[in-house]
Amino acid sequence: MTNQVAFDFSDAAVLITGGTSGIGHAVAGAFADSGAAVTVTGTRGGPDDYDTDLGDFTYRQVEMTDPDSIDALVASLDRLDVLVNNAGANFPGGRDEWEPDTFATALTLNLVGPMRLTTGCRSRLAASSLHGGSSVISMASLAAFRSIPIVPGYGSAKAGLVTLTHNLARQWVGEGIRVNAVAPGVIDTPMTAPMAHFPELLDAEIAHTPMGRLGTPEEVAGVVQFLASSAASFITGHVLVADGGYLLP
């Protein structure tokens, strides 16, 4: 017995920031497997600078803290049907987010940069003929909904990204652009890999998750594809939490 879902994004143009590893790479692979023309971004000079296979995608170098770099990315796009704001990080430069300048950098990387890219892509998204409307899907975080004192900048940025999702959804609804977000729980990615060196921290996070395990990048990718599909054509301004029940009271 199977209940697998296959999405068809044939000929759709999809841009995924931070698509070189982890959740972003899984999302990029899922869209490519569904027939989309996928562009991924990273900070390194070219696709060969990564250990992951980026051969199925177009690669663009971009720095999400650099306005000129973001604007150049937008200018390079001929068309766009789906934008996935996935690029982001905590502890920028390995620094303490309680230090005001580092806090500001975290906001720029995780909120201001995605906002600039999204608004820059507005006309291309509005011109999309994708069934169910074009989509912006931003990667939020459980840090938007609960206190994680070691990353105050990252958490504040992700909370801002949730609010931005709500406002863009209302602002752009008349242009056929749907704007949603996904808030993953603790997912097995390079970003969470350091937790393995602190078993007491990892065990506590798993114990707090009713499903009793880490999520996989592929499980998040399916959620992103659903929100971008015509099956979600009446959904906008929503944050879909994929956390194994972590936020349950």
Structure description:
With 249 residues, the chain is α/β, with parallel strands linked by helices. 36% of the residues lie in helices and 14% in strands. The chain has a seven-stranded parallel beta sheet with strand order 3-2-1-4-5-6-7, sandwiched between helices. Helix 1 crosses helix 7 and helix 3 packs parallel to helix 5.
What's the short version?
The protein has helices spanning 22-33, 67-75, 100-120, 122-126, 152-172, 199-208, 217-228, and strands spanning 13-16, 37-42, 58-61, 82-85, 134-139, 177-184, 239-242. The protein is of the alpha/beta class.
Q: What secondary-structure arrangement, pairings included, does this model have?
A:
Blueprint: E1 13-16, H1 22-33, E2 37-42, E3 58-61, H2 67-75, E4 82-85, H3 100-120, H4 122-126, E5 134-139, H5 152-172, E6 177-184, H6 199-208, H7 217-228, E7 239-242
Parallel strand pairs: 1-2, 1-4, 2-3, 4-5, 5-6, 6-7
Helix pairs in contact: 1-7, 2-3, 3-5
Please give the largest β-sheet.
7 strands, parallel
Q: Structural class of the secondary structure composition?
A: alpha/beta
- What is the alpha-carbon Rg in Å? 17 Å
Strand order of the largest sheet: 3-2-1-4-5-6-7
Main attributes of the structure:
249 residues; alpha/beta; seven-stranded parallel β-sheet; 7 helices
